[in-house]
Amino acid sequence: MALSRALVLMTIDYPPMLTIRLARIGRKNTAAFRMVLQEKTRAPKSAAQETLGSYNPHLPKREEQMQLNKERILYWLSKGAQPSPTVHNMLIETGIMTGKKKRVVHMNKKSAEGEAAATEGTAPEATPAKK
After folding, report:
1. Is residue 4 part of a domain?
2. What is the pLDDT of residues 87-129, one digit of tens each?
3. Residue 54: enclosing H or E segment and its boundaries?
């Protein structure tokens, strides 16, 4: 009985995890991005299920930089799609989502050690200034 139940669970085809992320388009040194809906395991440059908007950081006004399809974004969020940290922050900035922004910059190992030491109260060793 238990073995047959395990086989049934293994054969169930679960829907893929969907993510809303930015896919880079544009020429060299002139990056622009599409906000796309994709399976989480796929490469960002692979085919998207749906294009939900665009982001061009080279335009002067912040309102012109982001063109988003609010209805479709809300629809996919209600269906369980997870935004990437950068898209999460963009959606909060435009008012589509509420909450706190996420930290996007990942620290390297050396910076993380220095910050951990600073939070513990012991500063890392400073080198004396040369005279």
Report:
1. no
2. 999 999 999 989 998 888 777 777 767 666 666 655 444 444 5
3. strand 50-55
